[in-house]
Write a structure and sequence with these properties.
The structure holds two protein chains of two kinds. By secondary structure, chain A is mainly alpha-helical. Helix content of chain A is about 65%, strand content about 5%. Classes of the chains: A mainly alpha, B mainly alpha. At the A-B interface, helix 1, helix 5, helix 6, helix 13 and helix 15 of A face helix 6, helix 7 and helix 9 of B.
Chain lengths: ~290, ~230
């Protein structure tokens, strides 16, 4: 398969995730499609990735660290019984692999520090890769303060660094005070927002359009109520719209989510929807093609 | 190379690290990194200096009770800790009880282990694609883990364990090429020589490993657990 060299590739979080946590087969597919050289992400995408994945892994680190968890296995059981979301379950499997590679006995209380060390190093490594492997074009256009928080964890006491990081990330009030997402949406891209809202009204609700219509609904709320409804939580709902709007016009937005088909079209943003990891692997299995 | 084509292990020990810094002139450590005025190393050197004497005495309860300890599973009596004692006696380590080593002690341990690690990397490189590589892969991974147990707070371990994870996961050591092992050899040698590794150097080294093609985060997230219509909320 030829790498498309006519574009620089701007990765949405849905593509960034398999680049960092994907199966070997899917990573191979992505590299065959996009190469390794011209990959770009924005500060906002970095923030989305941290919020969706890195923070959960750090949370799991602290679950293992709890004095009530005698062994790593206790932490696994606790997490598995307590948290049900898809991403939270996925974290469990990921952490399992991280710990297994180090030949840690999850039932041995003496191996708990070893597991923490291994997991802590992995967290730091993911953060390094996020910052240094993917280029960031231009400015942090929404001035997202959460995206600017850096992880500084000393090898001798990683927990302190992780805790500071979580605290800073959770301080949404102070982050919102410094960000300019209201200006970004209500001034810089106000006409695009209106276009999205009108476009969504014309579309029938089905599986293809559902996600886009939901985003357009939140954008309508912002247009009607102004900056007061802008918050870190709201950015969680309309993140795809921000990513599409701040994507450089000379780059192709690479994504898996269907919503981008509708977010890119009205603003003439080049984009490509890739198959999801599950459907790609299912297709491979169906065609009996060795990975 | 011998007739059988096998390179004696440990051959590369001498060309790896020139010397352990001694005295004020060559001490490149940042003293501020160590808040204790008398380092563990100095204390240990003044009282025991195990590698200053060729003849070693057996560790016993009569020894001075000051200084750091390591607890042995089979031997309840606290033992005096010195890096060489750990290495030579092959004491079982319970990492949670490991005291913090000062940077000089860490460096001594690093020098000891890196020569064997580099030797193993070179051997795997020479036997790349051949079954014999497995012998050295096991030795390499095991040395890396042992070093992690003995000197866990050495920042060099972050680089070393990044390579460990790239090699250990799904036996990926068998998939990397001679050139990649050559790159890893040069990189480990270069960073092992720096007694005082800072965060940005560690970060740089890990990214260099990635550039060489080592996937330092090879672990996979279960695709069945990920919602296909991922809306990232």
């Amino acid at each position: 398969m030829e790498i498309d060299k006519s574009y620089k590739h701007y990765l949405d979080t849905s593509i960034l995730r398999p680049f960092l946590f994907g199966t070997k087969v899917f990573k191979k597919y992505l590299i065959s499609q996009l190469g390794r050289e011209r990959l770009y992400i924005s500060k906002f995408i970095q923030m989305e990735f941290k919020r969706s994945y890195l923070l959960n892994i750090i949370s799991f680190y602290f679950v293992i660290q709890l004095s009530t968890m005698k062994t790593v296995d206790d932490a696994f059981r606790f997490w598995s019984n307590k948290y049900q979301g898809h991403q939270l379950k996925a974290i469990l499997q990921l952490v399992g692999e991280i710990i297994e590679s180090r030949e840690i006995d999850i039932n041995n209380p003496n191996d708990k520090p070893k597991a923490l060390r291994q997991l802590g190093r992995y967290i730091k490594r993911i953060e390094y890769k996020l910052r240094r492997e993917f280029k960031v074009p231009g400015q942090n256009s929404t001035r997202c303060e959460r995206a600017e928080i850096s992880l500084k964890a000393d090898p001798e006491n990683m927990a302190i660094g992780f805790k500071d990081y979580l605290n800073a990330f959770d301080d949404t009030k102070s982050c919102r005070d410094k960000c300019r997402v209201d200006h970004f949406l209500l001034t810089k891209f106000s006409s695009e927002l209106k276009t999205y809202i009108e476009y969504a009204d014309k579309l029938k609700k089905n599986n293809e359009t559902k996600a886009f219509k939901k985003i357009a609904g939140y954008l309508k709320k912002i247009v009607e109520n102004g900056e007061n409804v802008c918050s870190c939580r709201m950015c969680g709902y309309i993140g795809d719209a921000i990513i599409a709007l701040e994507a450089p016009a000379d780059m192709r937005l690479e994504h898996i989510d269907r919503a981008f088909d509708y977010l890119c079209k009205p603003i003439n943003q080049p984009h490509k929807r890739h198959p999801s990891e599950i459907s790609y692997i299912k297709n491979l299995e169906a065609t009996n093609c060795p990975p | 190379m011998t007739e059988a084509g096998i390179i004696p292990r440990g051959t590369f020990a001498e060309d790896t690290i020139e010397s352990i810094p001694k005295g004020k002139e060559s001490r490149a450590y940042d003293e501020n990194d160590q808040p204790n005025t008398t380092s563990l190393y100095e204390k240990w050197r003044q009282t025991e200096a195990p590698f200053a004497h060729e003849e070693r005495t057996e560790m016993s309860e009569e020894r001075d009770s000051e200084g750091p300890f390591v607890e042995s599973i089979s031997q309840p009596t606290p033992l005096k800790l010195g890096p060489e004692e750990i290495i030579e006696k092959k004491l079982p380590i319970i990492s949670s009880f490991m005291p913090k080593l000062d940077s000089q002690a860490q460096f001594i341990l690093r020098v000891h282990y890196i020569s064997q690690i580099l030797s193993d990397v070179r051997h795997i490189q020479n036997y790349c694609g051949q079954p014999q590589a497995a012998v050295f892969a096991e030795s390499l991974l095991s040395e890396m883990r042992t070093m992690d147990e003995i000197s866990p707070s050495d920042p060099f371990l972050e680089i070393l364990m990044a390579l460990h994870d790239a090699l250990a996961f799904q036996n990926n050591w068998s998939k990397y090429t001679k050139d990649q092992y050559e790159g890893a050899y040069i990189l480990l040698k270069k960073f092992a020589k720096r007694p005082n590794l800072r965060n940005d150097a560690v970060e740089k080294a890990i990214i260099e490993l990635e550039v060489l093609g080592f996937d330092t985060t090879p672990f996979e997230m279960d695709t069945n657990s990920i919602n296909e219509n991922n809306n990232k909320k």
